[in-house]
């Protein structure tokens, strides 16, 4: 029997079924997430509605849109796998664990190839994946001022953030503190570790009441102004360090790493300024409620620091995000041949195969990221690791559609 021409009634039926399942899962998952998240925060929700019902609905919509887009970045692999599996299982209406039935099997027994049956699912699945990834990237780039994008609160107010100790690769200084405020770009109880190559003597530590980020201007490069520095007058090495200009990666001219009241009129007594390429956003621990950077933002960040230091994590994230829709599309070429295989009759076994292949997909992505971040291999090679492994495996499984 000749193959059915593309986009017949059967094709459109299969495509609608896939999209129905995908959007139904998205709606059910979002609804359950919102319900179980709102219940513990009922008091905050009531305060929103006391201001204005319209304001409350707008805030809640923005907040949970941000949360769901954030979650989809990490769970879309499983979401695609679940949509594909449920679609096929819905088409197989037999309740038996070993007998395959439904709309698909009669077509196969009538002479249609498994490859032809799979075509509409590949088309609609890839279309859905690329559309979702594009929508998410647009969202990441244009909704950074929405409630929940910068904090875990409904109001969107930037709260005090926890800090990680960071090593500024450009100067070698270690930066740490408490109560990082991204709104004022400052933090308290600053603790700055100074390597001996900056003190010309021995390792040193500077304690200060607060640190404030100052962007680059005509007087100085970007860095932090320390206020209420503890025992500043006892730091004898500062006089030499503040007068000696040194080359700093990323800067066109040489500068002293430290500026004191003796060398800069804008620095008051008891204060100390030091050059840094780490803005406050780089010092915060990542938490729920923050939108990930978009691909253009990742590119700008990597490009700006290209001459400063490797920045392996950001490079890995950029390449992985670019290849993400292709890796997720490959997942379809792993799942569908297993589901349609003539050799696999048990639905339970099919389920475990699908779960294993989805886990393999996610694991390879994380392996590629780890190779870049921890081993320092080129980011492009690490990001391509899942594709290099999955393409041959997909080719092998795709042969099942010809059986």
Blueprint (SSEs and pairs):
Blueprint: H1 9-38, H2 42-51, H3 53-91, H4 104-109, H5 114-142, E1 160-161, E2 166-167, E3 174-181, E4 186-194, H6 196-199, E5 204-214, E6 223-229, H7 237-243, E7 258-259, E8 272-275, H8 295-304, H9 312-340, H10 347-375, H11 379-398
Antiparallel strand pairs: 1-3, 2-3, 3-4, 4-5, 5-6, 6-8, 7-8
Helix pairs in contact: 1-3, 1-5, 2-3, 3-5, 3-9, 3-10, 5-9, 8-9, 9-10, 9-11, 10-11
How would you portray this structure in words?
There is one protein chain. A hairpin with an 8-residue loop joins strand 5 (204-214) and strand 6 (223-229). The chain is built from eleven helices and eight strands. It has 403 residues and is of the alpha+beta class. The protein folds into two domains: 9-153 and 313-402, no CATH class; 163-282, no CATH class. The protein has helices at residues 9-38, 42-51, 53-91, 104-109, 114-142, 196-199, 237-243, 295-304, 312-340, 347-375, 379-398; strands spanning 160-161, 166-167, 174-181, 186-194, 204-214, 223-229, 258-259, 272-275.
- In percent, how much strand structure appears in the residues? 5-15%
N-to-C CA distance? 16 Å
Question: What is the number of helical segments per DSSP (H or I, 4+ residues)?
Answer: 11
Helix/strand class: alpha+beta
H/E series, N to C? HHHHHEEEEHEEHEEHHHH
Biggest sheet architecture: 8 strands, antiparallel
User: Got a strand count?
Assistant: 8
Question: Rough shape?
Answer: elongated
Report the helical percentage. Answer: 40-55%
């Amino acid at each position: 029997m000749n193959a059915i021409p593309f986009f017949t009634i059967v094709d459109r039926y299969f495509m609608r079924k896939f999209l129905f399942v995908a959007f139904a899962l998205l709606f059910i998952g979002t609804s359950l997430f919102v319900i179980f998240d709102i219940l513990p925060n009922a008091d905050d929700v009531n305060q929103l509605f006391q201001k204005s019902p319209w304001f409350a609905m707008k805030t809640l919509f923005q907040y949970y849109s941000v949360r769901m887009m954030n979650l989809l970045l990490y769970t879309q692999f499983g979401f695609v796998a679940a949509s594909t599996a449920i679609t096929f299982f819905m088409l197989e209406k037999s309740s038996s664990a070993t007998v395959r039935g439904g709309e698909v099997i009669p077509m196969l027994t009538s002479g249609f190839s498994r490859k032809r049956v799979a075509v509409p699912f590949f088309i609609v699945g890839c279309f859905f994946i690329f559309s979702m990834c594009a929508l998410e990237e647009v969202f990441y780039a244009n909704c950074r001022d929405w409630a929940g994008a910068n904090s875990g609160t409904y109001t969107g107010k930037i709260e005090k953030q926890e800090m990680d100790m960071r090593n500024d690769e450009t100067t070698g200084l270690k930066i740490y503190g408490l109560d990082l405020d991204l709104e004022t770009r400052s933090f308290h109880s600053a603790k700055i570790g100074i390597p001996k190559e900056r003190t010309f003597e021995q390792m040193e530590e500077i304690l200060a009441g607060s640190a404030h980020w100052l962007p680059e201007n005509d007087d100085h490069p970007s860095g932090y102004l320390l206020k209420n520095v503890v025992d500043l007058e006892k730091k004898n090495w500062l006089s030499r360090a503040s007068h000696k200009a040194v080359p700093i990666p990323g800067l066109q001219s040489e500068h002293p790493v430290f500026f004191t009241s003796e060398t800069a009129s804008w620095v008051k007594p008891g204060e100390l300024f030091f050059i840094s390429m780490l803005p406050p956003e780089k010092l915060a621990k990542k938490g729920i409620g923050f939108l990930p950077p978009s691909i253009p933002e990742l590119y700008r960040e990597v490009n700006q620091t290209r001459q400063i230091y490797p920045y392996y994590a950001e490079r890995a994230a950029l390449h992985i995000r670019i290849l993400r829709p292709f890796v997720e599309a490959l997942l379809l070429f792993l799942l569908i041949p297993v589901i349609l295989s003539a050799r696999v009759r048990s639905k339970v076994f099919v389920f475990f195969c699908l779960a294993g292949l989805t886990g393999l997909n996610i694991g390879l992505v994380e392996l590629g990221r780890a190779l870049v971040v921890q081993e320092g291999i080129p980011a492009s090679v690490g990001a391509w690791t899942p594709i290099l492994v999955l393409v041959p495996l997909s080719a092998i499984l795709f042969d099942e559609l010809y059986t």
